Amino acid sequence: MSAIAGHERIAYSALPDRVGLRWPGGARVAVWVAPNIEHYEYLPELVRVRNPWPRVPHPDILGYGLRDYGNRVGVWRLMALFDRLQLPITVSLSMAVLDLYPEIAQAMLERQWEFMSHGLYNTRYHWGLSQDEELEAIEQCQQIHLRHTGRRLPGWFSPAASNTVHTPDLVAQSGIAYLCDLYHDEQPTEIRVRRGELISLPYSMEINDSIAWRRGIEAQAFAQKIRDEFDVLYAEGAVHGRVMNIAVHPFIMGQPHRIEALEQALSYIAQHEGVWWATGSQIVQHYRQHLAKDRS
After folding, report:
1. If you count Cβ atoms within 10 Å of the first and of the last residue's Cβ in the chain, which end, N or C, has fewer?
2. What are the residue ranges of helices labelled H in 116-255?
3. How far apart are CA 115 and CA 154, in angstroms?
4. What average pLDDT does range 264-285 have in this prediction?
């Protein structure tokens, strides 16, 4: 079965022409924080189109060790920060973490954090998979989530952003409600799929410490980016409610020399009225209600 072409996936919508989107309580901005808690294989296989590590031959102990630090140390520092600020959290999760790191799994479950799948490992890309292989990989993540939570996955973000032309159809087929593989808007968007329903939830590659880190942007400058983006969205959100995603990684912002900058930025947002701190599912559910009212 052929995939839906990219220009057919999402209807163009000029923001000024849309029906005004209001968040609960009249909030201007829905803010969702997404720590990417991931597993990287020590000796990954070559994945069809790209080597998982920049340094060969394997092991790339520098790349692996830094990310391992995130799961040993950095994640606990982020948890302490999110606890202090009492934030709802949606984890962009390598699903293998739930089996490989039981202490992390228990801590996240105790906090009732939402999990969206970021694939099995962040060294297992989906580029080049057949439709059957990709669906099998998605279903494997479904089963892990079901086993640990008793529920099916609410959201999907392809590992290492390795989405394929078939990903939206397969994610919808698996019963997942939202997709974070598209970076095209500041509001949720309906995605056309072969069958079922799927919503694009805005995920940021700009307010994303991994991208900032690769560009040589350090913690205080990244924190200023968070504040600057929030200020604009907050002002514009008086007319059209916006979504702001803050994507962080334990091995980056969980470092001792960066965590204070992140706390300052999140605390700045928390000082404002009219901010809805939400999970991915809460944002999508409210947006569906907005669509239903708009069509009635």
Report:
1. C
2. 131-149, 167-173, 209-214, 219-236
3. 7
4. 98
